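User: Here's a chain of 275 residues. Predict its fold as tokens.
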Amino acid sequence: MFRLNAGTGFRVVNLFTEDHAALTGAREVVIVDELKPEKSYNVNINYLKKIYAESGNYYAFEASAWYTHFTNSIIPDYDTNPNQIIYANLNGRAVSKGVSLNADANLTNGLRIMTGVTFMDVNKTENHITTRQMLTERFTGTWTIGYDIPNTNFTIDYTGNVYGGMRLPTLGPLDPRRQYSKPFSIQNIQITYRGMQNFEFYGGVKNLLNWTVNKGNPFIIANAHDPFDKNVVFDPNGQAIPTPNNPYGLTFDPNYSYGPNQGIRGFVGVRYNLR
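Assistant: Prediction complete.
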């Protein structure tokens, strides 16, 4: 099955429900002029193939490619002033383009596999300069592998995601935190028992690789000990300057977050189904 879609549209952005960083209170929210609705023009092509084998096995393959062009795009500016989030209509264009591949298999031996990978490029062009948008990865991958153990009531599920590096909101050249994240993966495993009517018992491990945002970073929240910037010294332009108590010239900032802050952990639970 082939599908080809194209269209255009517009939407009014609600900053305080769509961008939670505006609600942290760590940065002053600055809205430049009256914001206009965002406009987009997009095209998408999709291919889907399903295979039903005589053995009872099921396979599906899907591929998609898309291109979306935005005008009047509203993108938060973390770079101009580290103490502000500046919202304005982009004086240029923003583009989101990429491809995705997915494969599913459901086998009669109880094995289920779902995998997918997406490669994308999300950028903006202003004053003839093209830059990568913040907090957007180059690629993502996901998988789910489930297995019903024969002659038992147990099921094992192994799930995971992998994310490419992304540009992060740092507070300037002296900020020791990474400006770009490294690729990382979050993986989980769960065992479920369904041997009692209406009841399911499950347990497992989350974040098997014990990955957290602070890996390779000296800290995540800048100036966590001084949330009201009482000990920060500012220059006449309102920029924080280095001092013995603040050697990096940072202000309080909790916006450097792009993944889990909890490492590996176990869980157990019970589920009751109404039938």
